[in-house]
Design brief:
This protein is α+β, with helices and mostly antiparallel strands. Helices cover 39% and strands 23% of the residues. The protein has helices at residues 2-18, 71-91, and strands at residues 23-24, 33-34, 42-44, 51-58, 61-67. Zinc ion is lined by residues 25, 27, 30, 32, 45, 47-48, 50.
Length: 97
């Protein structure tokens, strides 16, 4: 179908300009496109939730350096710390260490 082909190539050329500043998820079962915030050091895949460390080739060209394996641990620790801090502030006045 010639119509289909024309449509596809148009979409393809459009996609070429649109991939600007995007990276592809390294999760083999995901491969989703991720668009990080400019200058972001990490990015989270909106599709599978994997988080990656970023390296910027130039201000508009991100690359994935590697996955953040301890991200879940970190998120858990952060949530815990926030809860702790919130409890502490509510419970007693903040003091030194
Ligand atoms: Zn993903």
């Amino acid at each position: 179908m010639p119509m289909e082909n024309a449509k596809q190539s148009a979409a393809e050329s459009l996609r070429k300009t649109r991939t600007f500043g995007k990276v592809r998820c390294h999760n083999p079962s995901c491969m989703g496109r991720i668009q990080p915030e400019p200058g972001a050091r990490r990015v989270k895949c909106p599709t599978c939730g994997m988080e990656y460390r970023l390296y910027w080739v130039n201000p508009t060209l991100p690359r994935i350096r590697g996955p953040v394996w301890d991200v879940n641990k970190e998120i858990a620790a952060k949530t815990f710390a926030e809860k702790e801090a919130a409890g502490r502030i509510a419970g007693k006045k903040k003091g030194g260490k």
